[in-house]
Structures are given as C-alpha cells and as structure tokens.
Design a protein that fits this description.
Blueprint (H helix, E strand, L loop, with lengths): L10 H12 L1 H6 L4 H4 L7 H42 L5 H6 L15 E9 L13 E8 L5 E5 L5 E3 L8 E3 L3 H8 L4 H13 L5 E6 H10 L3 E5 L3 E7 L17 E6 L2 E5 L1 H9 L10 H21 L6 H11 L3 E3 L4 H16 L4 E5 L10 E4 L15 E4 L8 H12 L1 H6 L2 E6 L4 H14 L4 E7 L7 E4 L7 H11 L19 E5 L3 H4 L6
Parallel strand pairs: 1-6, 3-12, 15-16, 15-18
Antiparallel strand pairs: 1-2, 2-3, 4-5, 6-11, 7-10, 8-9, 13-14, 17-18
Helix pairs in contact: 4-11, 6-7, 8-9, 8-11, 9-10
C-alpha cells in the first residue's frame, strides 16, 4: 500500500494518509482512491479502471486470507479450549516460535524410560459420584530400544494408603477417589504414589478416560482391528447404567445382555470394543479381571496401530474431531506444547520403525505364583480391618509389601522379551558331576529368580561342554541366546545323544565336562 503513495506528498501528508487508511469509518464513508487523497481528484477513466482492478485483486486476497485466519483461529480456539478443559498447558509463544528444536518428554530417574499411567473410570457421566479406577495400565517407553512395556494392575490389589497415619490399606482402584476426597485434584498423586510403592515405576504422565470417551475415540478413528485370542460368551454383560449385574442378572431380566466374540481378527466399533475390553463374566479363562486386563491391552495396541497407520497425527481435521469427541471425557496431566511435539515425534518414529510392545498382567500366576496371591479375607486377622470379598496382595506375610514385585518389574524392564517367553527351564548334569551341576543351577536361579528353573539331577556322566537348546527354537530364541551367553557356549542345538523330549521343558541345559577336564594329564 505504501508503494502506491505518490512521492510528491510530504512526510506530514503521508502520516495523515496512513492515519486515514487506518480509520475504518473514514474508508467506509469515503470510498475514494489513494491518488485522490494525494490531490489527484480527477483521475482518468483508464487510471480508474486499472485502480479498480487492483482494488478487486487486493480485496479478494484479503478475503481469502481472512477465511484462512478464521479457520486457523477456530482450530486454535478449539485446541486451546480443549487443552484447558483436560489439563494441557499450552503456551501461545510456543505455537508461534515452534518451541524447542529438539523437545523431549519427561523421563524417570534412570533417564531411560517415560512412563504413562492410563486409567479407565466408570463414571457413567458423573465423575463426582463413581471414581473407582477399574482399569489401570502403565505404558513404559524405552528410549534405547524403542520398545514399550505395558503392565496391567489388578483393581483388587491391596496397597497401603500413601498418607499419614501409616498402616492403612485399601484396594488400589479406590486410591484415586481417596486422594480426591482428601484434596480436590489430589487423586492422581495418591494413585501414582501407590503404584510407585507397588511396582517401583515412576509415573511422568497420566490420562484418564471414561466409558463414553473410550467409545468415541474408537468411532472417530473409524473402528479398530483387534485380534481376539480366545472365543468367549458373556451372558451377564451389564446394560448401560446398571451396577453389580453379576449378582442380579440371573434373577432380574433386563439387567444384563449376552455378548459373544469369535477367535481371530475382527474390526470393532466403539461399542463392541468396549464390550470386549470390559467383559469379565464369561465362562472359563476369559471370565476374570486378569483376562480383561489382557484384552484391554490388545485394544490399546489396536488404537495405537490405527493412529500410526492412518496419518492421524498429521491430519488437523482428524485431530480436531478427536478433540471434539473427548473434550468432556478425558483428563490429562499437564503437558506443554514442547512435550506434545516430543510425543508426536515419537509417534512418527514408531510409524517408520515400529518398536515391539510387550504386555504383562500383574496377576497371582505371574512369575510362577511367587509374587502375588488372590483370595477372600486375606487380611481378616489384622486389627481394625474387616475381611475383603476378594483381594490380590503379596505372598510375603500378612501385611502386604511389594519388594519382590518391584524387583520383578525391574527385571522385566531390562529384558521384556525373555519374560514374555517365560520358558520352563530344566538343568541336567551331563558330566560336570551332580554337586557341581546343582551349585551352578543355584547360581542361575539367583541370577534369574523369577523364571521357572529346576535342577533335574544326573543324566550322563561322560559328556563334554554345555549345551542350551529348545525343541521350539523359533519360539524361545531370546531365551536360547540369553542362557547361551550366560554359559558362554555356542552349542544351541539338540545333541545326537538326546533322543527324547526329556521332561517336556521349553529350554534344556546340559552341563558337561569342560574341555580341560577331558584332556589327559601331561606325562611326568
């Protein structure tokens, strides 16, 4: 605009012209050209036509720009509105400047992991009434490997309340509600402290979603494909709004419905995915909270795969749809724009080079039943505590302590594939002598206390070298490599002198004589 102002005009005149141009009422009431403002009151017809063409072009460009700004402004408004409602802390200057060049997420004290607590709450639309966190999953991302380990925490786990006075316990699914009652907004601090005391995992971020939000995000993504591991039928799945259906569905018709799932991959919408993840009254192995925990992890993996494969992270319209869907159903810990960008960067990296996802449910059967036990009335002999209908707690004494569980989780963090394979290991003396083989097995069990390792006695007395092999090498390859490395052997195939499956174990370790023991002594 300034380039069109005649150089004949004095500085004072130009200031007046700029002031008038800035005055919207002046332009509205005096639709004249710049040349007229400068003194050329009778422009030629040709000049007028040229000016009108320029004016039209500029006006069109301004209208287009305005529409873009309105669209961007609405998108920005929705983002700011959404983030304020769910807990994100967005700094406008970061959107303008782009924040740090290499943003990072918070990490735990080791600097190797970022741990996110994912919580499902059955609020039925009112978070102030029902606050039991019946779904608790920790997703731990390893920066060195790009892998993620997920741990499902049983809702019935009995833990100490992290507050004064000490010595008071409750189920962990009530910890959030207890924290909120003591201090508004203090629910997650209570829950995260209880989780750290139980698993040793430090939580950097949390996200809580209710049932409606769970369905909405899956429907917004267009459904997810889940691999159903086992077929099952639940005749006691609650209708929306019902409670404690397990005790009444057989007596009060209309309180429950029957749902069924067939083994194999299938695409689920939000309602079906919720049924699959929430069911816990099926017959057989699928009718437990622990089976439900495994199914919930599979749905989360399916959501992750859908987000990364569909380009959602780079699609503003899809992001906006998700924001609209979740605004009233999702609560997040405090994030900055830099942390959001860091999370997106990790997501894009995972899309290009997907890391592995390992799933563990902290149930009584884990680690061969040496860590946790489940049952009714486990704490009934403590003063001041009434028997519980059902609880899960540590095996080490009446007062629940979780030292061994913490050690187990720490081991899984370091070698998740090994603990995912969880091999049954049998050790045999094949020439090293019974006493020496027993000693070596004891040392091995000390190194790997949460694996199923057992010494089986003497098999042979004349074999040489240590052999580590599996009848299913493709299924237990990490286990083979781990223990072959431990014994510093390259013999990882079944030797010819073994003609059976022995005791049917997953991993066999044969301890033979060393090479030096078989050499004849030097003549004197």
């Amino acid at each position: 605009m300034a380039m069109e102002i005649s150089m004949k005009a004095s500085d004072k005149d130009r200031r007046i012209i700029y002031k008038r141009l800035a005055d919207k009422s002046f332009l509205r009431d005096n639709p004249t050209s710049i040349s007229e403002l400068e003194g050329n009151k009778t422009p030629s017809k040709d000049n007028k036509k040229k000016f009108d063409l320029k004016k039209f072009s500029k006006l069109a460009a301004k209208v287009i720009l305005l529409l873009v700004l309105i669209a961007c402004g609405y998108y920005a408004y929705r983002v700011f509105s959404f983030t304020n409602n769910i807990g994100l802390k967005i700094k406008p200057q970061d959107i303008i400047t782009g924040g740090k060049k290499d943003p990072e997420l918070k990490k735990d004290s080791t600097g190797k992991y970022t741990n996110v607590l994912l919580v499902g709450i059955d609020s039925r639309g009112d978070k102030s009434k029902l606050q039991n966190t019946d779904t608790m999953i920790i997703a731990s991302y390893n920066y060195d490997t790009g892998n993620t380990v997920m741990y499902s925490i049983p809702r019935d786990l009995y833990v100490e309340i992290p507050a004064e006075p000490k010595g008071y316990f409750q189920k962990i699914n009530a910890m959030y509600a207890t924290g909120e009652k003591r201090s508004k907004g203090g629910g997650f601090a209570f829950l995260e402290k209880a989780i750290k005391n139980t698993t040793g995992l430090e939580i950097q971020y949390h996200a809580m979603i209710d049932l409606q939000g769970f369905k909405k995000i899956i429907d917004t993504l267009g459904g997810v494909t889940v691999n159903v591991e086992n077929s099952f039928t639940d005749t006691c799945y609650p209708l929306d709004g019902t409670e404690k259906t397990k005790y009444f569905c057989a007596l009060l018709p209309g309180m429950a419905q029957t749902i069924s799932f067939k083994e194999g991959p299938q695409t689920m919408n939000g309602t079906v995915a919720l049924q699959y993840a929430r069911s816990r009254h099926a017959a057989g192995t699928e009718g437990s909270d622990f089976a439900r925990g495994r199914r919930q992890q599979r749905v989360l993996i399916a959501v992750k795969d859908k987000v990364l494969s569909s380009g959602t992270l780079l699609n503003p319209q899809k992001v906006l749809e998700i924001l609209d869907a979740l605004e009233k159903n999702l609560t997040l810990s405090t994030f900055t724009t830099e942390e959001i960008q860091a999370a997106i960067n990790i997501g894009l990296k995972q899309k290009e080079n997907p890391g592995k996802v390992f799933s563990f449910v902290l149930e009584p059967s884990i680690a061969g039943g040496r860590l946790l036990m489940g049952g009714s009335g486990l704490r009934s002999n403590l003063p001041g505590f009434s028997p519980q209908l059902y609880t899960v707690q540590s095996v080490d004494g009446v007062v629940p302590t979780y030292t061994e569980l913490i050690k187990f989780v720490n081991s899984v963090q370091k070698e998740p594939q090994l603990f995912k394979e969880d091999p049954v290991i049998r050790v045999y003396d094949a020439g090293i002598t019974y006493a020496q083989a027993q000693k070596v097995t004891t040392e091995l069990k000390s190194k790997y206390p949460y694996l199923n390792i057992l010494f089986m006695g003497t098999l042979y007395s004349d074999k040489t070298g240590t052999v580590v092999y599996s009848k299913e090498a493709d299924k237990f390859q990490t286990s083979i490599n781990t223990f072959a490395g431990y014994f510093k052997t390259t013999s990882t195939t079944k030797p010819d002198y073994i003609t059976s499956d022995l005791n049917g174990e997953d991993l066999t370790i044969l301890l033979g004589k060393t090479a030096t023991e078989t050499q004849p002594s030097n003549p004197q």
